[in-house]
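Q: Convert this sequence to structure tokens.
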Amino acid sequence: MRKAKIAIIGGTGFEKLFTCPERVVVGTPYGISPPISVGEIGGKMVAFLSRHGPEHKVPPHRVNYRANIYALHQLGVERVFAVNAVGAINRELKPGDVVLPHDFADFTKQRTPTFYDEPPVTHVDMSQPYCPELRETVIQCAERLGLKVWSRGVLVCTEGPRFETPAEIEMFRRLGFDIVGMTGVPEAVLARELEICYMAICFVSNMAAGMQERLTPKEVYDVSMKVHSKIEQLLIETIKTLPLERVGTCPCASALKNARIK
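A:
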């Protein structure tokens, strides 16, 4: 298999970024991955994985997050950019806005949240849930491109596949959350457990429940098509800018150091 140190996780369409992509399916201890496209962006090998499958057939609560992240790990991936559609809780946000969350809260209910169900007991530090170095690079690239992004925000992840109720959104607002989605967790945690740098690039597809009369998947899709080129541009510029090797001092690459009780 072709190896890649950088990966994009998102919806369909991003594989068009690649030069001569190769499609692979990776077997893992947690199941078989969806087809992964591996190709070149800016002289670097990059893997693209559609978390819902190539035809968006897997709902968010049924995504095999462990197989997805482990498959990327087996391909040699050290950095992941995850693209997520989210609803706006913060009233200052509007559909089409791009948000780079700095923190998350987990309100999922039945997902397997870890690779470490067996000894040694492992507790990874999530004081900085998203790689600070990747976030800073994306922010700088957005400024260079003249793209407006929200550089901070708290993402709350819900179970899905239903959308949230107005009462739930009001609760989240009072708790200080800015955006809501269904796919950000446990991806971020699993990546940290494998010492992979991970950050989320979220685009607001809609105002959350109670802030508009109704919400349909078509509305989410329509907004995603409008913002797709902006995110493509940001990903290409960021990948070109990144050094091939990780040389920084982010918490991701050494996440397992002192994390295990022996």
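Residues 44 and 244 are 7 Å apart (CA to CA).
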